[in-house]
Amino acid sequence: MSRVLVRVLVAVLVLASTSLAGKSPSKRVSWVDVLDEDNWHRMLDGEWMVEFYAPWCPACKALEPIWESLAFQKKELGINVGKVDVTDATGLSGRFMVTALPTIYHVKDGVFRQYKSPRDKDSLVEFVSQKTWTKVEPVPSWKSPTSIQMSVVSQFFKMSQVLRGVHTKLMEDFGLPTWGSYLIFAIATIVVGAILGLLIVCVIDFIYPPKGPTYQAKKKSKVDSGGFMAEKQSADDDIVDSVKDDLVDEEVSESDKSDRNSKSSQPNSPNVRKRRARKAD
Length: 281
Hints:
This protein is α/β, with parallel strands linked by helices. It has eight helices and five strands, in the order αββααβαββαααα. The chain has helices spanning 2-21, 58-72, 74-77, 90-95, 121-129, 148-172, 178-207, 213-262; strands at residues 33-35, 47-53, 80-85, 103-108, 111-115. The chain has a five-stranded mixed beta sheet. The relative contact order is 0.06.
């Protein structure tokens, strides 16, 4: 009976060890919270350290055990530790303007700060425990992931991911060459642009309708009256010039008379001033 119990215990131990050995590393218990498009708002409450990574990134793979170790101490540090896969959450990578991998953010009650210190465990723990994050300038409001403009940017990133998927589907499922897929996108861009332009023109005409014929007639009458006034002003200027010429002629005549009286004894003198011809009215 004892031999049977020993054999049963040995068999159980063998099965347990086999199951543990064959267990996939990806299924091991993780202390890191996985964040995506649906639950990323969780990081707005409390204090978080969040990593943006990609499965193919070598630096991200090197940081993974350190990040797991930091998450193991999250209760002791009083924080939450999360990670975002940018290949699955493209909108979040655009919302946070992730341009390098891995990118780490510290979030405290909705205030975002980018972590740029060394990525070893001691530096990460010190950044949180010693509150070194207070010395880091927070992300400005216009660039905050919660702002409207960054929400729009995230939608553009999502759209780019959709277009990439369509491009891949056209080539792999339908067998189109690369230039054929690009041609379809170019035609679609032109058509969509024309439709949007037409809609914009219609909206502008609705908000600022064109002026009617009555307004044009009034404007023309104002122009005509303005032209008449200009012609009248020109005629008045001509009359004033004529009067000035008459005054000049009269002054010249008086001076000529005095010269003739003073030089009557010299009729043939070449210095006699001739009268200036009067302009015709």
